[in-house]
C-alpha cells in the first residue's frame, strides 16, 4: 500500500515536472519598526525592510530557494518551515542546534527544498525564541487537484496571533527568573488578526471562499467564528479531511485550518469574524487587554460594521467539534503494532537556580554543543547509539519505518500544543476529550493516565496533523511512521515552554541520513562564523564519541528535603545577605521585586546566576 502510494507520488511528480517552478528569494533579515495594533511602536524583525513578512505562495511540486542573510546586527537567527516534511533535506528544517548552526549577524544560509505536499503552513525563526518578535508568516501550497478545488471561487489567508510590546530578549530575563518561580507566562499586549486589528475584508455575495486560518501565536490560543456563517473544514495542518461543519474553531499555537465559507446573496449587512483569546491560559488579565476582536467580511463598505458580542463560556456550544474526530480524506489506516512505545510525562518544576523549568521524563532539553544533525553526520556507526547525542537533548534513535507510539501525560496544569518536525502523526486518543472539561483540571486532583488495556477504541482512519494540544492534567496518544530519515525535534510550541526545555529529539534512520546528506561549505562557514563546532558528539568531542565530559547541562534538581519554597527562600537569603535587606520572607516573591525597585535597588541589585555566581540583576 505504502509503496503503491510512493510510486503514485513519483508518477505525478514526473507528470508535473515541466510545470514545477523554482521560487528564489533573497531575504535580508533586518530590524524595522511596526505598530500593528496602534498601541505602541516596537522593533520587529523584517525581511528586506518590510513587515508584515512576505507570504510564500507556491504550487505543489515547486522548489523554494531562500538565501537568508542575517542583517540584524545583534542576534543570530534561522528559519523553520513549519509542517514541511523536508524529505532528503533535513538540513533545511531550520531549528538551531538541531539541524543547523545559528546564523550569526553578517552570515547567510541557503535554504533549498521542494514542496511535495499540500495545504497551509507557515515559516518562523527557530533560534533563541524569536518569532514573537514578528519573524513569522504564512506559507501556502496550492493544489488544484484537491477534492475541493472546484468548490470555491477565491481564497483568503488569515493569521491570528498574540502580540507583545516588548522584545523577546527583554521579556526573557523577567520570565526565566528567580522572581518568577511559578513560571507565569508573560501576558501579551494585544491580539492581532492578520497582523492588524478591526479590519474589513471585502467579499462578493454568493461566492464561496477557501479561508485558510493560521495560528501564529507564541502562547495564547484563539476561538474563531463568523457571525451567521457556517464553516466547512477541509484541511488541518496540511492533511485533507472529509468536509466537516463547524460553527466555531479553536486554534492552538501553530495549528492551521482551511474552511469553505459560502457568502450570503444579500449585501445589506457586513458580518463579523470574531476572534476571542483563550483567557484560561492567562494568569492575570490586565484591564486594558482586549480579549475579543471583530473583523469584517465586508459585503458593502457603506453598510454598518458592528462589533459582535457573543459569550464564550463553559457551555458546550463553544466546543463544536474535536479535531480527533475528523476523518482524513486519504483514508490512511491506523498504524498497527507500534514497535516503539514512549511514555512521556510533562512536569514543570523549579531547578536549583530557583527558576521554573519544563521536564519531559525528568529531562529539560538543553541544546548540545554540536547541532544534532552534524553529530549524526560525523559519528560514523556510533550514530545509532543515542549516547553520542548527550544526556540533555533527550534523543531517541529510530529505525527506518518503525511505528512509534507516544503516550504523553501532563502532570502540569497548563496546556501544551506539541509539534513534531518532519511528520504528521495520527491522533488516537486524548483525555479529557475536547469539550467543557478540557481546560478544567482541578489542581490537587490526580492526573489522568492512559490505560493501554482499557481505552476507547482507536479510530480506524485517525486524523493526522503536526500540532496537537495536550490538555491540563490529561494525556494524549499519537502514532507516526518513521519513514523520513532525519533529526526531528518534538516540542511544545508555546515559545515560553520551549525556553524552559519542553522538547526532545528523534534521530530517525541515522545511517541513511549519512548517505543522503553531507554538510555543505555554506553550512560549515555559518558554524565557523557562529563559533559552533560542526563535528563531534554533543560535547563537541571528536576523539571519543561516548565521552560527554563538558556537555551542556540544565541546572540541577533541588536536593531532596528542600521544597521549592525552601530553595527560593535560600537563594533569596543569599541576595538579602549581599544587599543587606532583612525580613524578605514576609514578602511574596513578586512583592519583593517591587520592594527592591521601590527602595531603589531594582537596578544593579544582585542575584545568583544558574552557575551560582552572584551578578547584577537587570530590571
Ligand atoms: C495545476 O497546477 C499545476 C501547477 O502545479 C499546473 O501545471 C497545471 O496546469 C494545473 N492544472 C490545472 C487543471 O489547472
Ligand atoms: C541588509 O539590509 C541592511 C539594512 O538596510 C543593509 O545595511 C545591509 O547592507 C543589507 N545587506 C545585504 C546583504 O543586503
Ligand atoms: C537547490 O537544490 C537543487 C537540487 O539539489 C540543485 O540542483 C540546485 O542547484 C540548488 N540550488 C541552489 C541555488 O543551490
Ligand atoms: C495532497 O493532495 C493530493 C491531491 O489532491 C491528495 O491525493 C492527497 O491525499 C493530499 N494529501 C494529504 C495528506 O491530504
Ligand atoms: C493577510 O496578511 C497576509 C500577509 O500580510 C496577506 O498576504 C493576505 O493577503 C492578508 N489576508 C487578506 C485576506 O487580506
Ligand atoms: C492560537 O493558539 C493559542 C495557544 O494555543 C490559543 O490560545 C489561541 O486561542 C489560538 N488562536 C486561535 C485564533 O485559535
Ligand atoms: C444564493 O442564490 C443562489 C442562486 O439563486 C442559490 O442557489 C443559493 O442557495 C443562495 N444562497 C443563499 C445562502 O441563500
Ligand atoms: C468595537 O470594539 C473595539 C475594540 O475591539 C472598540 O475600540 C470600538 O470602539 C468598538 N466599536 C463599537 C462601534 O462599539
Ligand atoms: C468579550 O467576550 C466575553 C466572553 O469571553 C464577553 O463576556 C464580553 O462581553 C465580550 N466583550 C465584548 C466587548 O465583546
Ligand atoms: C524522575 O525523577 C524522580 C526523582 O528523582 C524519580 O522518582 C522518577 O522515577 C523519575 N521519573 C522518570 C520517568 O525517570
Ligand atoms: C475501563 O475504563 C472505564 C472508563 O474509564 C471504567 O469505567 C471501567 O471501570 C474500566 N474497566 C476496567 C476493567 O478497568
Ligand atoms: Cu507548553
Automatic annotation (TrEMBL):
<dbReference type="InterPro" id="IPR002355">
    <property type="entry name" value="Cu_oxidase_Cu_BS"/>
</dbReference>
<dbReference type="InterPro" id="IPR044130">
    <property type="entry name" value="CuRO_2_Fet3-like"/>
</dbReference>
<keyword id="KW-0479">Metal-binding</keyword>
<dbReference type="GO" id="GO:0005507">
    <property type="term" value="F:copper ion binding"/>
</dbReference>
<dbReference type="InterPro" id="IPR045087">
    <property type="entry name" value="Cu-oxidase_fam"/>
</dbReference>
<dbReference type="InterPro" id="IPR008972">
    <property type="entry name" value="Cupredoxin"/>
</dbReference>
<dbReference type="GO" id="GO:0010106">
    <property type="term" value="P:cellular response to iron ion starvation"/>
</dbReference>
<dbReference type="Pfam" id="PF00394">
    <property type="entry name" value="Cu-oxidase"/>
</dbReference>
<feature type="transmembrane region" description="Helical">
    <location>
        <begin position="567"/>
        <end position="589"/>
    </location>
</feature>
<feature type="domain" description="Plastocyanin-like">
    <location>
        <begin position="365"/>
        <end position="510"/>
    </location>
</feature>
<dbReference type="GO" id="GO:0033573">
    <property type="term" value="C:high-affinity iron permease complex"/>
</dbReference>
<keyword id="KW-0325">Glycoprotein</keyword>
<keyword id="KW-0560">Oxidoreductase</keyword>
<comment type="similarity">
    <text>Belongs to the multicopper oxidase family.</text>
</comment>
<dbReference type="GO" id="GO:0004322">
    <property type="term" value="F:ferroxidase activity"/>
</dbReference>
<keyword id="KW-0472">Membrane</keyword>
<dbReference type="Pfam" id="PF07732">
    <property type="entry name" value="Cu-oxidase_3"/>
</dbReference>
<dbReference type="InterPro" id="IPR011706">
    <property type="entry name" value="Cu-oxidase_C"/>
</dbReference>
<dbReference type="Pfam" id="PF07731">
    <property type="entry name" value="Cu-oxidase_2"/>
</dbReference>
<feature type="domain" description="Plastocyanin-like">
    <location>
        <begin position="155"/>
        <end position="300"/>
    </location>
</feature>
<dbReference type="InterPro" id="IPR033138">
    <property type="entry name" value="Cu_oxidase_CS"/>
</dbReference>
<protein>
    <submittedName>
        <fullName>Uncharacterized protein</fullName>
    </submittedName>
</protein>
<keyword id="KW-0186">Copper</keyword>
<keyword id="KW-0812">Transmembrane</keyword>
<dbReference type="GO" id="GO:0033215">
    <property type="term" value="P:reductive iron assimilation"/>
</dbReference>
<dbReference type="InterPro" id="IPR001117">
    <property type="entry name" value="Cu-oxidase_2nd"/>
</dbReference>
<keyword id="KW-1133">Transmembrane helix</keyword>
<dbReference type="InterPro" id="IPR011707">
    <property type="entry name" value="Cu-oxidase-like_N"/>
</dbReference>
<keyword id="KW-0732">Signal</keyword>
<feature type="signal peptide">
    <location>
        <begin position="1"/>
        <end position="20"/>
    </location>
</feature>
<feature type="domain" description="Plastocyanin-like">
    <location>
        <begin position="28"/>
        <end position="145"/>
    </location>
</feature>
Amino acid at each position: 500500500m505504502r509503496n503503491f502510494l510512493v510510486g503514485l507520488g513519483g508518477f505525478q511528480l514526473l507528470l508535473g515536472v515541466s510545470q514545477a517552478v523554482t521560487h528564489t528569494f533573497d531575504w535580508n533579515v533586518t530590524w524595522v519598526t511596526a505598530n500593528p495594533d496602534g498601541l505602541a511602536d516596537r522593533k520587529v524583525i523584517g525581511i528586506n525592510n518590510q513587515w508584515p513578512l512576505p507570504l510564500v505562495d507556491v504550487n505543489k511540486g515547486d522548489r523554494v530557494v531562500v538565501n537568508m542573510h542575517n542583517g540584524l546586527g545583534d542576534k543570530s537567527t534561522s528559519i523553520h518551515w513549519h509542517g514541511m516534511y523536508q524529505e532528503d533535506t533535513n538540513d533545511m528544517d531550520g531549528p538551531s542546534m538541531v539541524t543547523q548552526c545559528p546564523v550569526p549577524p553578517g552570515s547567510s544560509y541557503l535554504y533549498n527544498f521542494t514542496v511535495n505536499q499540500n495545504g497551509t503552513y507557515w515559516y518562523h525563526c527557530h533560534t533563541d525564541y524569536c518569532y514573537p518578535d514578528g519573524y513569522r508568516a504564512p506559507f501556502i501550497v496550492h493544489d488544484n487537484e484537491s477534492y475541493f478545488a472546484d468548490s470555491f471561487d477565491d481564497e483568503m489567508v488569515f493569521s491570528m496571533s498574540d502580540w507583545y510590546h516588548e522584545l523577546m530578549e527583554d521579556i526573557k530575563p523577567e520570565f526565566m527568573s528567580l522572581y518568577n518561580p511559578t513560571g507565569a507566562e508573560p501576558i501579551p499586549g494585544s491580539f492581532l488578526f492578520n497582523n492588524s486589528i478591526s479590519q474589513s475584508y471585502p467579499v462578493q455575495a454568493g461566492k464561496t471562499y477557501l479561508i485558510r486560518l493560521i495560528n501564529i501565536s507564541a502562547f495564547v490560543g484563539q476561538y474563531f467564528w463568523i457571525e451567521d456563517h457556517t464553516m466547512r473544514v477541509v484541511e488541518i495542518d496540511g492533511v485533507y479531511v472529509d468536509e466537516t461543519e463547524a460553527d466555531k474553531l479553536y486554534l492552538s499555537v501553530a495549528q492551521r485550518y482551511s474552511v469553505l465559507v459560502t457568502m450570503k446573496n444579500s449585501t445589506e449587512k457586513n458580518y463579523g469574524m470574531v476572534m476571542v483569546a483563550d483567557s484560561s491560559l492567562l494568569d492575570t488579565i490586565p484591564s486594558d487587554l482586549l480579549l475579543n476582536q471583530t473583523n469584517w467580511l465586508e459585503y458593502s463598505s457603506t453598510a454598518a460594521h458592528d462589533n459582535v458580542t457573543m459569550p464564550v463560556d463553559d457551555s458546550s456550544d463553544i466546543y463544536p467539534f474535536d479535531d480527533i474526530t475528523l476523518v482524513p480524506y486519504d483514508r490512511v489506516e491506523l498504524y498497527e503494532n507500534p514497535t516503539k512505545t514512549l511514555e512521556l510525562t510533562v512536569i514543570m518544576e523549579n531547578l536549583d537556580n530557583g527558576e521554573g523549568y519544563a521536564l519531559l521524563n525528568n529531562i529539560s532539553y538543553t541544546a548540545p554543543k554540536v547541532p544534532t544533525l552534524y553529530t549524526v553526520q560525523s559519528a560514523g556507526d556510533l550514530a545509532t547509539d543515542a549516547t553520542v547525542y548527550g544526556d540533555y537533548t533527550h534523543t531517541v534513535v529510530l529505525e527506518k519505518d518503525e511505528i512509534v507510539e507516544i503516550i504523553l501525560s501532563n502532570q502540569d496544569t497548563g496546556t501544551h500544543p506539541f509539534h513534531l518536525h518532519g511528520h504528521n502523526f495520527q491522533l488516537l486518543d486524548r483525555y479529557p476529550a475536547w469539550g467543557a472539561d478540557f481546560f478544567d483540571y482541578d489542581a490537587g486532583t490526580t492526573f489522568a493516565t492512559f490505560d493501554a488495556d482499557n481505552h476507547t477504541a482507536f479510530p480506524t482512519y485517525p486524523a493526522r496533523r503536526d500540532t496537537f494540544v495536550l490538555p491540563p492534567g490529561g494525556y494524549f496518544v499519537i502514532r507516526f511512521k518513521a519513514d523520513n530519515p532525519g533529526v526531528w525535534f518534538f516540542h511544545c510550541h508555546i515559545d515560553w515552554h520551549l525556553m524552559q526545555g519542553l522538547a526532545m529529539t528523534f534521530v530517525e534512520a541515522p545511517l541513511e541520513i549519512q548517505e543522503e546528506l553531507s554538510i555543505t561549505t555554506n553550512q560549515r562557514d555559518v558554524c565557523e562564523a557562529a563559533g559552533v563546532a560542526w563535528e563531534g558528539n554533543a560535547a563537541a568531542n571528536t576523539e571519543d564519541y561516548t565521552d560527554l565530559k563538558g556537555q551542556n547541562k540544565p541546572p540541577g534538581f533541588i536536593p531532596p528535603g528542600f521544597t521549592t519554597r525552601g530553595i527560593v527562600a535560600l537563594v533569596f537569603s543569599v541576595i538579602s545577605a549581599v544587599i543587606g535587606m532583612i525580613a524578605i520572607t514576609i514578602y511574596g516573591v513578586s512583592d519583593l521585586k517591587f520592594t527592591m525597585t521601590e527602595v531603589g535597588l531594582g537596578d544593579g541589585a544582585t542575584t545568583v546566576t544558574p552557575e551560582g555566581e552572584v551578578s547584577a540583576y537587570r530590571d
